[in-house]
Specification:
The complex is a heterodimer of chains A (about 200) and B (about 100). Chain A is an all-alpha fold. Helices cover about 80% and strands about 0% of the residues of chain A. Chain B has one domain: Arc Repressor Mutant, subunit A (Orthogonal Bundle). Classes of the chains: A mainly alpha (about 200), B alpha+beta (about 100).
């Protein structure tokens, strides 16, 4: 059997840290808020990053490090992840804006096609968001997020079919992600008790 | 370090050969350092046991502890020195030689 490379071992350490459920819980919370905001036609979704970011910053300090300890490789990996994730996130935002503008323009230019345009717009947004979740799954090597991405796309198609707000699809995806995150957090806390003196 | 002999097993570094110390060095091989809790968690050693092995590794110059700030939080990071990495690499080669020299 081949010996593992240092990168393999770094990945193993990173995966251990990712078992704390932070990514799923916080992304789920963000999607839930954004979805409810979209469904209710309010700007509640705009609060998501404001609420999620401080929790994300405190999570590792309060929950993960006292139980697993601190390894410098995690910060190194976080830097690498940020460098790859920021372009993905910016692309998603740019695509969402483009899709909204393009479909709004199409809706105005083709009289009587508003309904069809709105449907395709929802599917396009669902596709972009699902691709975002799938890319996160690839970047963080979290295979269960591929399933969530698939579910998200199915929910967006379902919302179009049932003629309900796409916000519900987003909110349900957020709830599922949040639940996954909570289960992972409970397992993490059970399997990694706080060490004496940590 | 001892002079090489014909018997590969005789040339194995006794500092690293202790399972607990080998585990500590293997953990510290990954990345650019880790704190005491991380090493303790990964090796499964008690605090006292880990401290005593770390003292031995520090005295040999294989491991160094550095007080540092990570995001304004003070941390004591344990790092493998270059000498420690070399020693671990040599240890691996000697062990492979020693195991190859064993009759089947």
């Amino acid at each position: 059997m081949d010996s593992p490379t240092l990168t393999d071992l770094e990945n193993k350490v990173q995966r251990r840290y990712d078992q704390d459920g932070a990514i799923e819980t916080l992304m789920g919370f963000g999607f839930l808020l954004a979805g409810l905001g979209l469904a209710s036609g309010t700007t509640a979704g705009a609060l998501a990053p404001v609420l999620v970011l401080p929790i994300a910053l405190a999570w590792r300090r309060r929950i993960t490090y006292p139980r697993l300890g601190y390894a410098a490789v995690v910060d190194k990996r976080r830097g690498e992840f940020r460098r790859r994730f920021v372009p993905v996130a910016l692309t998603v935002i740019a695509l969402m804006i483009l899709v909204i503008i393009a479909f709004e323009a199409a809706g105005k230019s083709v009289p009587g096609a508003n309904d069809a345009v709105a449907r395709y717009q929802k599917i396009a947004i669902g596709l972009i968001l699902s691709a975002f979740v799938a890319s996160l799954a690839a970047l963080r090597r979290l295979p269960h997020l591929y399933v969530v991405a698939g579910l998200m796309m199915a929910l967006f198609v379902g919302a179009v079919t049932l003629r309900i707000s796409a916000g519900y699809a987003l909110a349900v995806t957020g709830t599922v992600l949040f639940a996954i995150g909570m289960v992972r957090l409970v397992r993490f806390l059970r399997d990694n008790p706080r060490l004496e003196g940590a | 370090m001892s002079n090489r002999t014909d018997e590969p097993a005789a040339d194995i570094d006794p500092i690293i050969h202790v399972p607990a110390r080998l585990a500590i060095m293997a953990v510290l091989l990954v990345g650019e350092g880790a704190d005491f809790t991380f090493v303790q968690k990964q090796t499964g050693l008690t605090r006292g046991n880990l401290s005593s092995h770390l003292m031995k590794l520090e005295a040999t110059g294989y491991v160094v502890s550095e007080k540092t700030f990570v995001r304004r939080v003070p941390r004591t990071l344990l790092r493998l020195t270059d000498a420690g990495r070399d020693a671990l690499r040599r240890y691996r080669l000697r062990m492979e030689e020693a195991l190859r020299a064993l009759p089947k």
